[in-house]
Design brief:
Elements (H helix, E strand, L loop, with lengths): L7 H24 L6 H24 L6 H20 L7 H4 L13 E9 L2 E8 L5 E3 L2 H11 L15 E2 L4
Parallel strand pairs: 1-4
Antiparallel strand pairs: 1-2, 2-3
């Protein structure tokens, strides 16, 4: 029996099918459980599938033996997946990255929540609310670096920060 074809396209396709099947089986199982929020789980599953698609096709995207039209499609998928991931990123999920080195200025505890963004004199002020005492404290320089990495490309004049899980406005 000849060995199976191991072209980059075939490897990527096999991986995509595996990822899609795993997520589909998980969603089918979840749909049988009344306590599971299947809609939220489906969103998470789709995000994992997109991430998997990018990873599984990255080798084929740069392989000159792969058809140029397919490489172009892979590049477009990667660009669209990256854009979707950025615009749907939720600050509440990344609160600990935003809180790098953060400590409440009032009680000194490190229990951050509710990331908030406010525009002040053409710049953005980002702070976090302390879960213990409710006081808001600005993020640190490390937190600012995380913000720039995670949300910087979005933070323009038309950015809807609330869509990304931020409390918007208020007095910093």
């Amino acid at each position: 029996m000849p060995p199976p074809e191991t072209s980059p396209e075939r490897t990527a396709l096999a991986g995509l099918i595996r990822v899609l099947d795993q997520q589909t089986v998980m969603l089918l199982d979840a749909s049988q459980r009344p306590e599971v929020d299947v809609a939220s789980l489906t969103k998470s599953a789709f995000e994992l599938v997109l991430r998997g698609a990018r990873e599984l096709t990255s080798a084929a995207a740069s392989d000159p033996s792969v058809d140029a039209a397919l490489r172009h499609q892979i590049s477009e998928l990667a660009a669209h997946a990256t854009e979707l991931e950025q615009i749907t990123r939720d600050a509440r999920v990344h609160v600990h990255e935003l809180a790098a080195g953060w400590k409440c200025s009032s009680c000194g505890l490190e229990v951050p929540s509710e990331p908030r963004v406010a525009a002040v004199a053409k710049s953005l002020v980002i702070d976090l609310k302390c879960r213990a005492c409710g006081k808001r404290t600005a993020i640190t320089e490390k937190g600012r670096e995380s913000f720039e990495r995670l949300f910087g490309p979005l933070a323009g004049p038309t950015w809807n920060a609330a869509r990304n899980g931020f409390v918007v406005g208020g007095r910093p």
